[in-house]
Hints:
- Strands 3-4-5 form a 3-stranded antiparallel β-sheet. Strands 1-2 form a two-stranded antiparallel sheet.
- It is mainly α.
- The chain has 23 helices and 5 strands.
- It has helices at 34-39, 52-55, 58-65, 77-99, 112-125, 135-140, 159-171, 176-202, 205-217, 219-225, 231-265, 276-279, 287-300, 306-328, 333-359, 362-366, 375-378, 389-406, 457-477, 480-493, 513-528, 535-563, 570-575; strands spanning 4-5, 49-50, 429-433, 447-452, 567-569.
Amino acid sequence: MGFVTQTPMRSAGAAPTPADASTQQPAPTRRRSAGAAGRGRNLDGHRWVARPKEAYTLPALTRRLVGDLGSWRDYPRSLRLWYWLIPTLTAVLGGILRFVRLDTPHNLVFDETYYVKDAYSYLVSGYERAWPDKANDSFIAGNPGILLDSPEYVVHPPVGKWMIAAGMWLFGPESSFGWRFGAALTGTLSILLLALIAQKLFRSMTLGAVAGLLLAVDGHHLVMSRTSLLDIFLMFWILAAFGALLMDRDDGRRRLAGRLAVQASSSPAGVPTRLQLASGPWLGVRWWRLAAGVCLGLAVGTKWSALFFLAGFGLLTVFWDLSARRIAGVHGWIAGGILKDGLPAFLSIVPVAGLVYLSTWTGWFQSSNAYFRHWAEANPSAQWGWIPNALRSLAHYHLEAYKFHQGLSADHPYKASAWSWLVMGRPTSFFYESPKQGTGGCELPSCTSAILSVGNPLIWWSAAVALGVLLFWWIGRRDWRAGAVLAGVGAGYLPWFMYPERTTFFFYAVSFEPFLVLALVYCLGLVLGRRTDPLWRRRSGLLVVAVFVVGAVLLSAFFYPVWTAEVISYQDWRARMWMPSWI
């Protein structure tokens, strides 16, 4: 048997340096000194190649498959506190921006007119009930108890509305802070989650901090976190599923390393037998993958567009396992990966997500008056009669909702084609008022109070360019991290091009916005350079990244008034409308 190559994965080492974001590749070749010349004649001193007996030891397999830093526990003791503190600080900053003046405006903003009232209906009945005419005025006035007894037909699943209802349960349905609390908390937690994911993905605390900070100050994410629409909840569960799959990637590789090492240690040759390497071992129950299935079920239970993430992430995790078996030296890594990883991955994700999704309709099942609840009893079927009536009624509900979504082509002043999302061609105006002088905090002849779901231009336009860089790094350098980020963007973005006639809005893009931030941070990591680069190179890279981050923060401060309905002069509002299509 020949020598087994080992591609080491660089780690953050003893300091949270930004070099860890560079692509996984062998360390640059160094000129050999006189002392190193002797080592060049054999394997001593070369980490990229090992004898077979050494290659299948647990440390060698773990280093090859996971790298030096697979967990926060692998960091030096002095840095473990910072591993958690840095993401927490970015989340605290984001929370301040999201919770301060969260009750302003005390009005049902944009589609809050649907989801907030549906959430209150959930608190009262467990399903959506209809409202009388001019119900918004009564609801805003603090008198929500005017629900009708008849059910309401809605086309979105329950999870997001239950999360809105939780805030209303805590702070009261008459409080605009209460009906937005769930969105603000979810948006804040997503900042913490993204910073942790970036740290694990790039193995750099610096880049984790940058990722959390950029998401914390971005206007699009900020507006969606301060408004009770469903998309911020969709984004959170998708991001949580991605994080769980990242954890599963390392966990699966550790299991593979451990089981191959046990097989090797029990073999006289010190390596697994050919039969054992034919397909590799089964890796057991993957608990993080089950957690991802739960999160994806909750995501689909928020909006059906999460189905594309379910498919994309499912394929992504299988590709990761195929690659692990190939790197470990498994001969039949394709067949072995499909049978021993692919099928278990399907069973761990798809049925679990389906059961979780079905459970989110518990309120509908337990009701006696929800929309279409007894459709099956009124429409008996000889062909499908073996299906329980409740499930058949729910299936009919879903069919009707699907038809609604397919036929949604009504004109809207703020509809935006998916082609324009990355450049923010037509952001959605959630709220606009022109208070008169002497009212509503206006002390000028002409004032404006607005909420526009436009992102930070420096972040969004740079992220759009970064996607091209990632595509090159994924195809040209085969960096799995670039592929993972592109998979998240593609699952949330590309499917919308299949429905060019459908009415779509820019705020749908929040579902994949965290992956845009990760793409941008990936490129900032390239600017920072590698740990092996000269000191002048790293300092200049750090300066460029620092200037970029400071510029993004200052630009967010400039746009902040039009994200949070602050009362400013009309001229100041117009100064922030950089494109005519933003008005």
